[in-house]
Amino acid sequence: MSNHIFIFGLGYVGRHLAAALSMRGWKITATTRQPEKLNQKVPESWTILPFQAGEKLEIFDEHFSEATHLLSTITTVSDSDPVLELYGPEIKKFSGWAGYVSATSVYPDQPDGWVDENTMPAPVTARGKARLTAEQKWQEYTNAEVFRLAGIYGPQRNPFAELLEGTARIIDKPNQVFNRIHQTDISQILIAGMDKPRPGRVMNLADGRPASQGDVLSYAAGLLGINPPASIPFETADLSPMARSFFSSCRRVRSNIIGPELGLELVYPDYKKGLEAILAEQNF
Asked: I need a surface site. Which of 165, 214, 246, 251 has the fewest CB within 10 A?
């Protein structure tokens, strides 16, 4: 049987992964909120289905039943997982490889030291708590592998454009650091997890250089040859509740799985190498 992945959520992570698997000969079925926006942007061989929270698709079964692999990249909505809310019974019957893309927000704040896959989850934000609940349900339903992602960046998702437009902001939160992970490394780790499966496994996807948001923006500005924006104190910054909760957290994340178990090295082991590569590949 040829490999056929069903991806819930053809967003930034899902679309890059689908492209990488398609190049390996995999059949791709995926969902997105507005399939028409992907017209002529993805191969015609891909099957793209609509997904809206609360609206069950009648033709879901005929596509889902053919899949050998299942991955959800869709985040929680109103403290619940919209995929399991709609298709929980069908997903419980799925017998192939299953994965769930989560986030490192499930870990506790840890200003000193590091967290890894052996660290007990203890989220401090509502978003992190919802993520942990979703992880547990995916593992209960399918024994899914869980991929906890740090801050995602890559082509079309990086600070260069905002710096050039003058809209980038440095939020000054002393001692606040977090890891990042380049999209190239996300795809290679997800594929390696499928190639060397271990049901129920939890894996952190994070680079080896946690840093502040200001350090990253300043380095990106230096690569562009421009001055970084002035710092804005966290206490007075106009931030959305989600952004404020993000800056309230602090942790340094590493993985005990990527190297020892999967035998992988990150293509971009820190944000400096990742940003340098993006700038070399794109015109700004």
From this structure: 165
